[in-house]
């Protein structure tokens, strides 16, 4: 297709493969994994669809120009030489986000300032007036990325990070980022084909993302808006078509999604957020202490949770993690239990051998996403049965 162009989707460490799979499933071409990003090609409609539907992307940027830069003056000249009127008018506002990884350029703020000066001076020299900067809610967000002496100029099509889905108004002390929650669910193999439990659900993010995956609901359907809606070439009719066709691809879900939390405030917050996401038909939240519960359903149970950690709540790590292991052993046969922790030494207290251990980051904390397979009956009996068949 002649009107395809290159884009880059940014993501969290360890989610690059998930994101490239999502992009291919949506119909992207030339998908290439990088570090914390995946580049791909598509047309304008696909850019809208990527922002709306991708679960593991944080931002979608559209590169518009790249060049080599020697120093700050060279950067200024080359930014000045660009045709900014194609993207911005004097009556609109803009903001610059800069990322630098270079010996020559060491301060991203200085790079932002130089870029801003070049754009403003270009408008002033040609129009006699200039567009204003608005850091909070600009009409155009420009992304500058300098690696050594290579400079890439891109337009940010997303605006605020795509983890801000729009359904979460009430949160706990340290809620899990929605993109992280969604990525963990996809890593765990969650596909909506069984019952699901988050036994420490907090403000309900894992539950909400699990329901959206199960029903194939576009991840960002509840967002107030995207940056591309303010672009001069925004096609509102095309965007409406993309929304409609994405919503037609939702599917029914025939199992249960259950959340527990022992704090009444958390249960209330989770219910509010689930309500905001229009998912109350699919999710039940109950006030329960996981350590006093048993598996609530028949058949295979998929469990995924984010236990509280030291920075958030004052808990006795050894007792807490051994209680997780004991509860799983005694009350949850036929369960695939996954959880994330940044407290790596605490994992030995669980007293079970994880069948998977994946390195991920929760914010800046290096973490592990671990899986414990709890068999129906004992493991030994399962193998004996397998050998008899």
TrEMBL record:
The keyword RNA-binding applies. GO terms for molecular function: RNA binding; rRNA (guanine-N2-)-methyltransferase activity; rRNA (guanine-N7-)-methyltransferase activity. InterPro entries: RlmKL-like_Mtase (IPR000241), RlmL_1st (IPR054170), SAM-dependent_MTases_sf (IPR029063), THUMP_dom (IPR004114). The keyword DNA-binding does not apply. Pfam families: RlmL_1st, THUMP, UPF0020. Keywords: Methyltransferase, RNA-binding, Transferase. Residues 46-157 form the THUMP domain. It comes from the Bacteria. This is Putative N6-adenine-specific DNA methylase.
């Amino acid at each position: 297709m002649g009107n395809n162009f290159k884009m880059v989707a940014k993501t969290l460490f360890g989610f690059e493969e998930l994101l490239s799979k999502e992009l291919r499933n949506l119909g992207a071409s030339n998908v290439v994994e990088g570090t914390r990003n995946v580049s791909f090609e598509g047309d304008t409609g696909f850019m809208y669809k990527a922002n709306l539907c991708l679960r593991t992307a944080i931002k979608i940027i559209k590169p518009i120009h790249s060049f080599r830069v020697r120093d700050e003056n060279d950067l200024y000249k080359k930014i000045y030489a660009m045709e900014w009127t194609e993207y911005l008018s004097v009556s609109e506002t803009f903001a610059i986000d800069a990322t630098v990884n270079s010996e020559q350029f060491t301060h991203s703020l200085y790079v932002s300032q130089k870029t801003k000066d070049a754009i403003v001076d270009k408008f002033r020299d040609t129009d006699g007036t200039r567009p204003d900067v608005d850091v909070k809610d600009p009409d155009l967000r420009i992304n500058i990325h300098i690696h050594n002496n290579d400079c890439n100029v891109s337009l940010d099509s997303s605006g605020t990070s795509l983890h801000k889905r729009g359904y979460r108004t009430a949160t706990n002390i340290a809620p899990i980022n929605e993109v992280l929650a969604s990525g963990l669910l996809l890593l765990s193999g969650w596909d909506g084909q069984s019952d699901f439990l988050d036994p420490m659900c907090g403000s309900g993010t894992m539950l909400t993302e699990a329901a959206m995956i199960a029903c194939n609901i576009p991840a960002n359907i509840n967002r107030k808006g995207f940056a591309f809606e303010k672009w001069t070439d925004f096609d509102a009719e095309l965007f409406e078509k993309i929304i409609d066709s994405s919503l037609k691809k939702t599917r029914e879900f025939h199992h249960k999604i259950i959340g527990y939390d022992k704090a009444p405030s958390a249960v209330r917050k989770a219910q509010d957020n689930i309500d905001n996401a229009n998912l109350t038909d699919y999710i039940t939240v109950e006030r329960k202490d996981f350590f006093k519960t048993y598996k609530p359903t028949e058949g295979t149970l998929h469990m995924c949770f984010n236990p509280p950690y030291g920075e958030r709540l004052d808990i006795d790590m050894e007792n807490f993690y051994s209680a997780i292991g004991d509860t799983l052993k005694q009350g949850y046969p036929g369960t695939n239990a996954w959880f994330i922790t940044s407290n790596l030494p605490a994992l030995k207290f669980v007293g079970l051998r994880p069948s998977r251990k994946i390195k991920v980051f929760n914010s800046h904390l290096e973490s592990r996403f671990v899986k414990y397979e709890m068999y129906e009956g004992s493991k030994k009996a399962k193998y004996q049965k397998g050998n008899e068949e």
